[in-house]
Amino acid sequence: MLSQRSSGLLLHPTSLPSHGGIGDLGPAAYAFVDWLAAAKQTLWQVLPLQPVGAGNSPYSCTSAFAGNVLMISLERLAQRGLVDPKLVAAIPDGGCSVDFESVRVHKLPLLRQAAGKFLQSASGRPRERYDRFCHDNRWWLEDYVLFSALREQYGEQPWNAWPAEIVRRNPDTIAKLYSQLQGRLDKERFLQFAFFEQWSALRSYCAERGIRVIGDVSIFVNYDSADVWTHPQMFRLKADLSPEVVAGVPPDAFSETGQRWGNPLYDWEALRSDGYDWWIKRMRWAVETCDIVRLDHFRGFEAYWEIPADEPTAVHGHWVQGPNDDLFKALRSALGKLPFIAEDLGYITPEVHKLRRDLAIPGMKILQFGFGNRGAHAYLPHRYDPDCVVYTGTHDNDTTVGWWNTGATAEEKQLASAYLGIGDDGVHWAFIRAALASVANLCLVPVQDVLGLGSEARMNVPSDTGDNWSWRLRAEALTPELAMKMATLVEITDRDACVKTPSPRNEQGQGKLGEDFAA
Prior knowledge:
Layout: E1 6-10, H1 27-38, E2 43-45, H2 74-79, H3 85-89, H4 100-121, H5 124-136, H6 138-153, H7 164-167, H8 171-180, H9 182-208, E3 212-218, H10 226-230, E4 245-249, E5 259-264, H11 268-273, H12 277-289, E6 292-296, E7 303-308, E8 318-321, H13 325-335, E9 340-342, H14 350-358, E10 363-366, E11 388-391, H15 400-407, H16 410-420, H17 427-437, E12 442-446, H18 447-450, H19 480-492
Parallel strand pairs: 1-2, 1-12, 2-3, 3-6, 6-9, 10-11, 11-12
Antiparallel strand pairs: 4-5, 4-7, 7-8
Helix pairs in contact: 4-9, 5-6, 6-9, 12-13
């Protein structure tokens, strides 16, 4: 799967130009897949799909298993009679950025209306599918729906600020809450069902067109999450259940105080004694919901930066050995072949490289990083081997045009011009051509680079608490002409071996939508 020469685009679903203020799994997602097929792309990379917590980062989620219900398509629910289309049409569209708070205010009530109508009236096959989903996924679903309901009930406060008997999960208290909140929990169950039905339908549509979805798993989880509340024994917590130590990265050339992410660190000994059961479940779920999985912060599996929780910065942290190949042996024993990509950027030691090579997991090459000092040349195509994944940039980088206009030094521009031979169509197409023409088996390009957008389209600035994760694709921006240009490059760079002919169109110019629970 990872050795076949192919290419694709990086775009998170929330960035799609869907109606309602945020990208979702509805018509705009299907139109994007159609464009990928027309452009002869066979990969679509997304960011984590889980529900976001404070800051709206998909890398700081309230569950490692649940789906982000804000991505549920109200239009598809309306087509199935679960919500009034007029109410859906009245939701503010939001323009070219996501206003997460506005989306929550306007969209969540309609999602819950749809949930209530389904629970009251559904029968036959849709009801059977819902019941089966709840039964098959109760191992994560029941904890999550209760966590989500309680988090709302207590004003979005973190779980350690709730009443003590709930924080400590007193069995009698938890049983009583399930009974008292039954109606609310049923709606939460339905929303998870709707998310994964729509996601499964979209993935089926991708598969019919030969497009594989690359998902993303963040190594750490948010402290304010169902996972930590439900499994405190898996984490390095104090007696009062607050974090003892937290995750981050050490000071470097970009930050003199490092990065203090604040995620609780795992108690790897406790996880090892349990046979890594939670990690096996997590990665099994990841490979069931996506075709390929990118492991964020892969170096943390070899060694991670441990920061005392009471330290305000990452300066006084230290390196601690991670689970290394012991975890991956358990994963391979349970799951078989592991279709992983390692995010191996930043401070990477020979030990990290050895772990990745021993596991036969391809690493990442970011073309934008290649034009600094000679040590940066490892990111240039002449230094690649086929067993890697090349990106022009990632969600954490500025766009290629933005980097060129405001971030690149005069020397970097001179070197890039000499190396790439930048033409009249801009630096972004020079980067795209170099990435596609490289020997790397997989090539991924952010949509912003295909469109030649500047810093205004950047998805995330690490360690910045500003308006991250909110960029949205403009409707009709991905034109047939751009698809043809990408398709031609795919052909000449021999990345079209697994390209399928798109299915015939119907009278509306659309392929058949994927089937979901109410079809």
